[in-house]
Amino acid sequence: QVKPEESGGLLVQAGGSLRLSCVIPGRAFSRRAVGWFRQTPGKEREFVAGIGYPGGSLYYADFVKGRFAISRDNAKNTLDLQMNSLSPEDTGVYYCAAGAACTSVTCRMTRVYDSWGQGTQLTVSS
Question: Percent of the chain scored above 70 by pLDDT?
Fold first, then answer.
């Protein structure tokens, strides 16, 4: 199985912006739920944002607070996460993931996703 692959992680200053991208191989990309998760130091992997399937609804973690925007391009099999107003608390490893389907509740659960990228490191300096 070919896994998703993220890109875009790096070092940014607090208050800055960054766009993460992920390529998710496979013909069925348009019929899959997709999401971004992160693992910050000392914490378990947590939900950041997702796009449900069916329906395509967008879901965000409370800590995003309107700062992040998730989007997908089905023609290119890509999933993006635009992040603005970054803070040091956003430092961590960010993962993209794909799954069969999810709802407003289950899209936030790691167990829903069966394909994961290797992760990309984001460091936000104060």
Answer: 97
7: closest CA among 118, 86, 108, 98? 118
Token pair recorded at residue 33: 């739920």
Amino acid letter, 110: T
Question: Which run of H or E residues covers position 23?
Answer: strand 18-23
Q: Residue 125 corresponds to which tokens in the numbers above?
A: 């300096």
Alpha-carbon span 2 to 121, nearest angstrom: 21
pLDDT bucket at 82, cuts 50 / 70 / 90: very high
What residue type is assigned to position 37 of the chain? F
Cα–Cα dist 32/22, whole Å: 14
Sort strands 11-13 and 120-125 into parallel, antiparallel or unpaired: parallel
pLDDT in tens, 46-75: 999 999 999 999 999 999 989 999 999 999
